[in-house]
Amino acid sequence: MELNDLNGKMMITVAGEEVEVHGTDSVKDTLKNILAEKGIDSFTILVDGNEIESTEALPETFQDHIVEVQRYVKPGSK
Fold first, then answer.
1. What pLDDT shows up at residue 1?
2. What is the distance between the alpha carbons of residues 14 and 31, in angstroms, rounded to a whole number?
3. All domains of the chain in start order, with CATH
């Protein structure tokens, strides 16, 4: 993820695809909207390389964080 110093935009990774967000955007609200748009309902969130196990552990904003969402597929599912 890279911060564009000119406009505060950052890139996060969602299911292998880069998505642009603002550093000051709410992580919880933004991820909720992106995941709903993409139809992803089972996922793992990593922040700074660490798996997040509850929404309370999410940072407020994307600023200074590396955020990745990986699609989760149960073993044996297609």
1. 43
2. 9
3. 3-71 (3.10.20.90)
